[in-house]
Amino acid sequence: MDRKVGFIFLALFILFGVCLCGCTEKPAETPDAVTAPEATEAPVVNENPTYIVGIDGEYPPYSFINKNGEPEGFDVESVKWIADDMGFNVKIQAIAWDGIIPALQAGKIDMVYSGMTITDERKEVVNFSKAYWKVNQSVATHDDTGLTMEDFNAGKGKVGAQRGTTGGFWVEENLVNKSIITPDMLITYDNFPLVATDLQNKRIDFAIYDRPPMLDAIEGKPLHIIGEIDTGEEYGIAIRKTDTTLLETMNEGLDHLMASSKWDELKQKYEME
Amino acid sequence: MDQITFILDVMVPAFESGLLMTLALVAVTAPIGLLIGIGVACGRVYGGKGLSWLMQLYAIFFRGCPLLLLLFILYFGLPSIGIVFTPFVASVLGFIFCNSAYNSEYIRGSIISIKEGQLIAAKALGMTRNQAIINIVLPQALRRSIPGISNEFIYLIKYSSLAYMITVIELTGASKLIATKYFAYNETFFAVALVYLALVTITTFGASALEKKFAIPG
């Protein structure tokens, strides 16, 4: 009887050990495996590197997962163009926005190209490329409320924002920290569609978000934009601090892209201006 | 900001309010979840055909529905038919459904384990069926389900973290807010894991003390 129990424990122990080995053998970053797992590694003649690009999967028109489950958008097409131009491969990966910088730091992705605002706080942990887009925050409310921008600035209502976005940070700095609203009047959500849903449900009175994706999120809903906040934010590509060559490559790629006809084509396609 | 001021000025106050919210969620859910669990289990074992079937449906539905989905329906879905819950109420409702469904199975298991003869003997002594269930079967069955129920209680402590998805700032929500704001993911999540571990450890000791206290001698 005892031997039987001992045997079971031993078996479990071995199983656990095997699982652990399985985990450690697989490095976090295996971009090569995607292209050709069976090719021998000998004839690598300066082959193009593959970079994993992290995006917010719900940030139209910059980056989103379309109906076929494929990544699409202004930023997604931009990075593909730059990749062709500068000679590297990309793999687009949608990641939860509030965990996207740790994913970058941990090497799960190599850059964030998804309408990320350049901020001083973020600059402390990652590098940013040159700015490629200017954007303002916009505030929306329900059609039934009749609330205005003055009401928003006076703190007359609950504000919803996506967690980890500059809109939420703005409210915290300018309304919460100045005691115009109490901390529990700023409500944060996992993604913006949830904010829009709750605004429609009238649990919150205002929603704040970058203007272009806001337009997309409120389309066809009984919501409208009541005003903008001129924050003068700029979007850049976030890259690990140690990856200085990739930063140079992306800066050069951005220069080429913005000088090309593709830039205007993209702006038109996604109705950016 | 150095580590110590970060812990004292940012982490501690945030965790404090988050912990209170987690405890509130658990404290409201657990007793109601247990009572409903007992009711559902009794209905399944002793109820007539209709009631038994209904209770089975309850258990199947709420054990089968992913909790996150249930919370989304309660919070984001119901307003479209005019029912608007506060985040706290919606979370507690979701947790109660889930908690009671699982509890009912633990309790049903221990009710079945009590020999049928006891019920017959109690009736022979002049008790009604309900008296026999309440005074003879349930006291024994509930003792036997303490390990299962405490298991579910531990699980409740951890799945209460899903409330942050519907904007309740409990322990996990509070830590996520700090983590995203200060980019201190490792420290924050490690610290919050320790808090959960402490909660679960306390529960484990409490449950085994309870088991000893209510052990049937002999």
UniProtKB/TrEMBL annotation, chain A:
<dbReference type="InterPro" id="IPR001638">
    <property type="entry name" value="Solute-binding_3/MltF_N"/>
</dbReference>
<protein>
    <submittedName>
        <fullName>ABC transporter substrate-binding protein</fullName>
    </submittedName>
</protein>
<keyword id="KW-0732">Signal</keyword>
<feature type="domain" description="Solute-binding protein family 3/N-terminal">
    <location>
        <begin position="50"/>
        <end position="273"/>
    </location>
</feature>
<dbReference type="Pfam" id="PF00497">
    <property type="entry name" value="SBP_bac_3"/>
</dbReference>
Automatic annotation (TrEMBL), chain B:
<feature type="transmembrane region" description="Helical">
    <location>
        <begin position="20"/>
        <end position="41"/>
    </location>
</feature>
<keyword id="KW-1133">Transmembrane helix</keyword>
<keyword id="KW-0472">Membrane</keyword>
<dbReference type="InterPro" id="IPR000515">
    <property type="entry name" value="MetI-like"/>
</dbReference>
<dbReference type="InterPro" id="IPR043429">
    <property type="entry name" value="ArtM/GltK/GlnP/TcyL/YhdX-like"/>
</dbReference>
<dbReference type="InterPro" id="IPR010065">
    <property type="entry name" value="AA_ABC_transptr_permease_3TM"/>
</dbReference>
<feature type="transmembrane region" description="Helical">
    <location>
        <begin position="189"/>
        <end position="210"/>
    </location>
</feature>
<dbReference type="GO" id="GO:0022857">
    <property type="term" value="F:transmembrane transporter activity"/>
</dbReference>
<keyword id="KW-1003">Cell membrane</keyword>
<feature type="transmembrane region" description="Helical">
    <location>
        <begin position="153"/>
        <end position="169"/>
    </location>
</feature>
<dbReference type="GO" id="GO:0043190">
    <property type="term" value="C:ATP-binding cassette (ABC) transporter complex"/>
</dbReference>
<dbReference type="GO" id="GO:0006865">
    <property type="term" value="P:amino acid transport"/>
</dbReference>
<protein>
    <submittedName>
        <fullName>Amino acid ABC transporter permease</fullName>
    </submittedName>
</protein>
<feature type="transmembrane region" description="Helical">
    <location>
        <begin position="81"/>
        <end position="102"/>
    </location>
</feature>
<feature type="transmembrane region" description="Helical">
    <location>
        <begin position="53"/>
        <end position="75"/>
    </location>
</feature>
<feature type="domain" description="ABC transmembrane type-1">
    <location>
        <begin position="19"/>
        <end position="207"/>
    </location>
</feature>
<keyword id="KW-0812">Transmembrane</keyword>
<dbReference type="InterPro" id="IPR035906">
    <property type="entry name" value="MetI-like_sf"/>
</dbReference>
<keyword id="KW-0029">Amino-acid transport</keyword>
<keyword id="KW-0813">Transport</keyword>
<comment type="similarity">
    <text>Belongs to the binding-protein-dependent transport system permease family.</text>
</comment>
<dbReference type="Pfam" id="PF00528">
    <property type="entry name" value="BPD_transp_1"/>
</dbReference>
